[in-house]
Design a protein that fits this description.
Elements lengths: L1 H6 L6 E7 L5 E7 L2 H10 L7 E7 L14 E2 L5 E9 L2 H10 L10 H13 L4 H11 L2 E9 L6 E6 L4 E4 L4 E4 L11 E4 L4 E6 L2 E6 L8 E4 L15 H7 L1 H9 L18 H6 L2 E6 L1 H18 L3 E5 H4 L10 E7 L5 H12 L3 E6 L5 H5 L2 E4 L12 H21 L4 H23 L2 H10 L4 E6 L3 H16 L2 E6 L16 E5 L8 H13 L4 E7 L11 E5 L8 H18 L18
Parallel strand pairs: 14-15, 14-16, 16-17, 17-18, 19-20, 19-21, 21-22, 22-23
Antiparallel strand pairs: 1-2, 1-3, 4-5, 5-6, 6-7, 7-11, 8-9, 8-10, 10-13, 11-12
Helix pairs in contact: 3-4, 4-5, 7-13, 7-14, 9-13, 9-16, 13-14, 14-18, 15-18, 16-18
The structure holds 5-amino-5-deoxy-1-O-phosphono-D-mannitol.
The site of 5-amino-5-deoxy-1-O-phosphono-D-mannitol has 16 residues, from helix 9.
């Protein structure tokens, strides 16, 4: 149950466990809703003690969140219990085949077919591991399957294709899970599982094979963060804790990037300088908040490297037959490293011969493993479903990558790169200053908590910040919010503006930026139509005050780096509004942290 609690952020609409009891019987319990419902059920009807068990928290794909659709699913004869993450794309045909042979289904899930198929194989005489290998070969789509058989009470087997699975190696105890947070309390020794592999786990060890039964090697690694990183540490929400961790997280992402000759070194980028010089186009691919980090990256990369940079939503990427060649550099951004849409984009790009660099926060996850190179963000585990430190560190990594490419391609002199790096290194302290002066943002949240709609405007890199501010408010406060490029408003969305509508505006730095005055005009346009303007502006800029109903001050920064500061008040605002509304900030409705299905 402790492990499930740590994994709940990945899915929380139902949960269940199954134990193989000493009596060679499977004892299962499952409940719709959050884990507390299952806990209450188990308090009422406890299961017997056992040495082997599986558990699951679900994010519904096929079939509503209900007791019946919760995992584990038990095979027709009752021998096998199984849990599944992912989507079995050919489940309809398999279900028809099983039904034709007399199997009755108890759920609407795609997962139940796997339980019955494995059950049928063991009923026909195969051992559990062979049964799982055989069935895994028949399944299409994405799956991590974990199964136990009441007749092999010392064995647990798991297989994976396109979904995460790690093994935790303890002393006299073993674990498998979607991520290490589940077992970090017990062991920090983990083993990464490759694509299309099966692991057989007993209390004393593990064995990895491919789906044909050929022995393979998992990749052992040591988890270098401790349990406290995955706990709230006195905060009410993980999200709030993670917002406050941002100065450290950004500092850690920037740490140790200069060598003795003051050259930027990104050791993890195992793509030769010759190849990087030959690149004629950069395509950044990501989802959600990571996509917005990509939008910021475009401005920085094009400005510093003069190479054309496109940014694309990963779920759209491969389906439009994008023009990708061996001279295209594809950069993926993913906090979890497991987002299915982004993973599929990586595979598509590599099939076209492109080199792929992953910007990622999760060691050992699938996307970096399948990429040519990886730039880790070192933010530590992000548990809140709404990404915060993930976003800031992704932007920091994008700046590093942009500067590195400029250095390799010679589009910036060394001293120019050093100047930006010096400014980047001042950012953690400035982010801390934003956090320390957030009382006005809290007050604003109290005033605006009952609003029905909020708009966010920005230009240049302020535009992705506006999108991110709106996404945060939508996903945790369930409030209608939209981000627009401030100059685009007059082409349509300004019709939404009515008396009192709150509009956040991110103002570029004064004096050094040509867009500053344009944004002031945009503020006046919405104010003239009754909007309540909340303006994020750098300290010392007083020009904006006559047109602002509220002013949120930011430390000074250059235009390209301003998103590292301007995002923070918007995160705090969303967190505060959601808290005041009484919502579960860390586990907002309908969402899951890692979206491992397409
Ligand atoms: O793990 P990833 O960075 O690949 O996740 C991408 C998105 O699913 C993620 O950023 C999502 O939009 C968050 N809920 C945003 O807060």
């Amino acid at each position: 149950m402790d492990a499930l609690r740590r994994m709940e952020y990945r899915g929380y609409d139902s949960a269940g466990i199954a134990l193989v009891g000493p009596d060679n019987t499977i004892h299962a319990s499952k409940k719709a809703g959050k884990l507390v419902n299952l806990e209450a059920e188990l308090d009422e009807s406890p299961l017997p003690e056992a040495n082997l068990g599986i558990g699951h928290t679900r994010w519904a794909t096929h079939g509503a969140p209900s007791d019946a659709n919760a995992h584990p699913h038990v095979s027709a004869s009752g021998r096998v219990a199984l849990i599944h993450n992912g989507i079995i794309e050919n489940f309809a045909g398999l279900r028809a085949e099983l039904e034709a042979s007399g199997v009755g289904f108890r759920s609407q899930t795609d997962s139940e077919v796997a339980a019955h198929l494995v059950g049928r194989e063991v009923d026909n005489g195969l051992g559990l591991a062979d049964a799982l290998r055989t069935v895994s070969q028949r399944l299409e789509g994405a799956f991590t399957l974990v199964a136990v058989d009441r007749d092999e009470p010392g064995l647990l087997v798991a297989s994976r294709r396109n979904s995460p699975l790690v093994v935790g190696v303890g002393e006299g105890e073993m674990f498998v899970a979607s991520d290490v947070a589940a077992f970090i309390e017990h062991t920090r020794e983990a083993v990464e599982m490759g694509q299309d592999e099966v692991v057989e786990v007993t209390a004393s060890g593990y064995r990895v094979t491919d789906f044909d039964g050929n022995e393979t090697q998992g990749k052992p690694y040591h988890v270098d963060w401790d349990l406290s990183a995955a706990e709230k540490g006195g905060y009410d929400w993980f999200m709030r804790k993670e917002i406050h961790e941002q100065p450290h997280a950004v500092a850690d992402t920037l740490l140790g990037r200069f060598d003795a000759d003051h050259r930027l070194t990104l050791d993890e980028i195992r793509i030769s300088e010759t190849e990087l010089r030959a690149i004629d186009k950069i395509v950044v691919v990501a989802c959600g908040t990571a996509y917005y980090a990509g939008l910021v990256a475009k401005y920085a990369i094009e400005h510093w490297t003069r190479v054309a940079c496109e940014v694309e939503i990963a779920s759209e990427f491969r389906y439009r037959d994008p023009i990708i060649t061996p001279r295209t550099l594809v950069v993926t951004i993913s906090q979890s490293g497991e987002t299915a849409d982004t993973l599929m984009a990586v595979r598509h790009a590599r099939e076209q011969g492109a080199k792929v660099i992953a910007i990622c926060n999760t060691n050992g996850s699938t996307i970096p493993r399948e990429s040519d190179a990886v730039l880790y963000t070192h933010a530590g585990p992000e548990i809140g479903v709404a990404s915060t430190k993930g976003f800031l560190t992704q932007m920091a990594a994008c700046y590093l990558l942009g500067l590195y490419l400029a250095q390799v391609r010679g589009t910036k002199y060394g001293d120019e790169i050093a100047l930006v790096m010096t400014e980047l290194e001042t950012m953690p302290a400035k982010i801390q200053a934003v956090l320390d002066n957030a009382e006005a943002v809290h007050a604003l949240a109290r005033e605006l908590v009952d609003e029905k709609s909020v708009l966010f405007l920005g230009r240049h890199v302020g535009y992705p910040v506006a999108l991110e501010g709106a996404l945060k408010l939508k996903e945790i406060a369930y409030l209608h919010a939209e981000g627009f490029p401030a100059g685009e408003l007059k082409h349509g969305p300004i019709a939404l503006v009515e008396e009192g509508l709150p509009i956040f505006v991110i103002v570029p730095p004064q004096g050094r930026d040509q867009l500053h005055d344009k944004v002031l005009s945009n503020i006046q346009e919405v104010r003239a139509r009754g909007a309540r303007t909340i303006v994020l502006v750098e300290e010392g800029d007083t020009e904006v005050e006559p047109y602002a109903d509220e002013v949120i001050r930011l430390p000074k920064a250059s235009t390209l780096l301003q998103p590292l500061l301007a995002t923070v008040p918007l995160q705090i605002f969303a967190c505060e509004v959601a808290t005041l509304k009484g919502y579960d900030v860390d586990q907002p409705r309908n969402l899951a942290k890692s979206v491992t299905v397409e």
